[in-house]
Recover the amino acids of this structure.
């Protein structure tokens, strides 16, 4: 019986991490449903971008208040993992504060964790107030109703509870240390939890141990649960922000890719020696679909983008179309892409590994034509994203599908395009008049 | 501007067996749009004054295809691009200057993938170069003590990180250059990009150009400076929407400089 806690802990750890691994596999399979895209170029620049944008949070601080609060929570999260490591070792080995022999360094570490935990609590409260009391405009857009709103708040509650458990654990530990209870070695510094400690002043050692153990267990079980909540939540960005910034666009923002399949067709069309009446080759592959109507037509970096989006809405609040009341919201484009990809993933799970058409697609069922045509391709959303997401590239792929596969452009644009075809200008003027401006 | 300007075509250079220093890519707006034609003429006045040997393609120029590409018609874009590249490569063009950020972006970034490699510069960059090389001198009188605010075109600024050249050039007019709250990387679109110029906007509570002009008017300017023919149209319409056409004018950087030499 002596080893029961160790065994229970190890089981909890294995189950928690096992479920997480299963989710990661599903995530990776879904992302790989996207088309291949070559992102192997310019590795040094990619590493630099990741270090700067994800690790260094350079784009977060463009908005100073949110940026500062975010950095606190982020640093708190990263540093507190050292504490989690100790908890895991203690749990498996049945030790208590296994790093305590580090002495003064240990005291300093525990002290700084406490300060960070306190700052995280403050930041989380401010975040909650911004979402629920001040109701910042970007958090109350139509796409944020229902689950996205709940998800956002839930993350804040979980973080709050985890931080309180951590401090409670330390406060009772501090009391136990004062009472010289066996197993509770005198170690650590408690700059914050010493203020909670008086609450437990008159408690018996056994009750204190009960509270301390409960807080300890809930803290680590909470962390494991949170780890598994990630996959179902926008909070996935804490992991994916890193690969996403690594694979982010390196070319100038204005440079859109030249669709290779189109290049081949155009070259063939312009080749005078090509026989237009030639019979198609027998086993020629199916002609490539131009643009995207569903998630499988997008590339895997675009799908990774969708899973990385944390719905902060900085893109939408910078979008000129959205600011003038149009339906387009770049954040919704990303959320729709993720929702569709999730639905496709569930469909594959339900059908033993193959996708059975469900009569739906990203274009039309999730994203409307009106949204797509409202975009000015100004790149404000791309610039605003703190984690290098490119909503514009998805909008462009779907416009390509509408125009090249369905000829479904707005009438005025069709007129403009036929003018270009006939006169070499978007207006119906004669190409021979191109120099008239000189003599006017 | 009724002043005489001198323009030679690439064909004429070819006939003489010489190469110009630069090719001036006029663009469809610069060739046909009544307002933008004035910008083309102003820029030529500058080139003439600086003694730049330049050529235009004239009837051999065709739409870059940029607007077709942003609308989603990659086919039409690539057809246009390949035809233009054939002409440009045929004349062995090395350096291109244009007053249109959309042509600038496409020629610079998207043509190389289809076989067209050129050194492409925006006219504000080229004017700066002429000033820096001492080929052009500015008489900073006309706009002295005027307030000018510069609207960054998306396809010059955010899309290609050209923020300083137009500002450096504008400073030569001795005007007071005032910045809008959102400028450079965070500048708001004029509303014309992505083929919006050629269609009615989607339903909303306001037009984008009206909102952007509001940004500009908040700086209390005499002049809104632009570096893009489409921005020029949109801001001019915005001024009308705000009923400020009597007190505020919209001018391209090229026009401001042409008036200052």
């Amino acid at each position: 019986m002596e080893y029961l806690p160790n065994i229970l802990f190890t089981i909890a750890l294995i189950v928690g991490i096992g479920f997480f691994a299963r989710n990661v596999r599903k995530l990776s399979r879904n992302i790989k449903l996207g088309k291949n895209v070559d992102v192997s170029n310019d590795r040094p620049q990619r590493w630099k971008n990741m270090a700067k944008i994800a690790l260094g949070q350079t784009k977060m601080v463009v908005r100073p208040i949110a940026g500062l609060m975010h950095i606190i929570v982020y640093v708190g999260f990263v540093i507190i993992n050292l504490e989690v490591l100790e908890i895991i070792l203690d749990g498996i080995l049945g030790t208590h504060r296994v790093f305590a022999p580090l002495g003064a360094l240990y005291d300093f570490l525990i002290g700084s964790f406490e300060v960070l935990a306190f700052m995280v609590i403050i930041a989380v409260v401010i975040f909650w107030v911004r979402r629920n009391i001040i109701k910042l405009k970007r958090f109350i857009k139509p796409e944020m109703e229902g689950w996205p709103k709940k998800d956002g708040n839930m993350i804040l509650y979980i973080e709050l509870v985890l931080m309180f458990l951590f401090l409670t654990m330390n406060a009772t530990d501090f009391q136990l240390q004062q009472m010289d209870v066996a197993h509770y070695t005198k170690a650590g510094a408690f700059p914050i939890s010493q203020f909670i400690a008086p609450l437990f002043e008159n408690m018996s050692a056994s009750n204190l141990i009960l509270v301390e153990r409960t807080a300890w267990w809930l803290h680590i079980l909470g962390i494991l649960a949170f780890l598994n909540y990630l996959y179902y939540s926008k909070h996935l960005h804490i992991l994916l922000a890193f690969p996403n910034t690594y694979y982010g666009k390196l070319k100038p923002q204005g440079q859109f890719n030249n669709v290779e399949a189109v290049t081949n067709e155009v070259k063939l069309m312009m080749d005078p020696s090509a026989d237009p009446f030639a019979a198609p080759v027998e086993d020629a592959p199916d002609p490539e679909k131009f643009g995207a109507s569903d998630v499988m037509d997008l590339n895997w970096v675009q799908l990774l983008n969708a899973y990385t989006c944390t719905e902060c809405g900085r893109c939408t609040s910078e979008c000129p179309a959205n600011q003038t009341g149009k339906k387009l919201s770049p954040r919704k484009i990303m959320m729709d892409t993720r929702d569709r990809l999730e639905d496709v993933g569930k469909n594959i799970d339900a059908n033993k590994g193959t996708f059975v058409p469900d009569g739906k697609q990203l274009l039309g069922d999730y994203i409307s034509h009106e949204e797509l045509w409202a975009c000015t391709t100004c790149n404000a959303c791309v610039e605003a994203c703190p984690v290098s997401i490119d909503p514009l590239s998805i909008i462009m792929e779907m416009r390509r599908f509408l125009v090249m596969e369905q000829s479904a452009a707005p009438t005025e644009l069709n007129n403009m395009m036929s003018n270009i075809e006939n006169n070499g200008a978007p207006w119906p003027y004669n190409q021979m008049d191109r120099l008239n401006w000189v003599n006017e | 501007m009724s002043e005489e300007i001198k323009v030679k075509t690439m064909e004429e250079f070819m006939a003489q067996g010489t190469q110009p220093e630069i090719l001036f890519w006029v663009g469809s707006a610069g060739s046909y749009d009544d307002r933008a034609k004035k910008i083309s003429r102003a820029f030529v006045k500058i080139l003439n004054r600086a003694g730049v040997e330049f050529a235009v393609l004239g009837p051999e120029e065709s739409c870059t295809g940029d607007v077709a590409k942003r609308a989603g018609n990659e086919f039409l874009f690539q057809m246009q691009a390949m035809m233009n590249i054939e002409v440009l490569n045929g004349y062995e063009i090395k350096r291109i200057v244009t007053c249109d950020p959309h042509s600038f972006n496409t020629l610079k970034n998207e043509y190389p993938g289809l076989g067209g490699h050129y050194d492409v510069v925006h006219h504000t960059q080229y004017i700066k170069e002429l000033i820096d090389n001492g080929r052009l001198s500015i008489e900073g009188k006309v706009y002295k003590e005027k307030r000018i605010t510069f609207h960054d075109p998306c396809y010059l600024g955010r899309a290609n990180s050209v923020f300083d050249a137009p500002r450096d050039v504008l400073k030569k007019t001795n005007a007071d250059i005032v910045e809008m709250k959102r400028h450079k990387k965070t500048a708001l679109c004029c509303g014309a990009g992505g083929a919006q110029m050629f269609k009615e906007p989607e339903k909303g509570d306001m037009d984008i150009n009206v909102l952007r002009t509001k940004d500009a008017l908040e700086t209390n300017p005499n002049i809104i400076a632009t570096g893009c023919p489409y921005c020029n149209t949109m801001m001019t319409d915005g001024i009308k929407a705000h009923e400020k056409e009597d007190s505020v004018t919209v001018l391209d950087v090229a026009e401001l400089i042409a008036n200052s030499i």
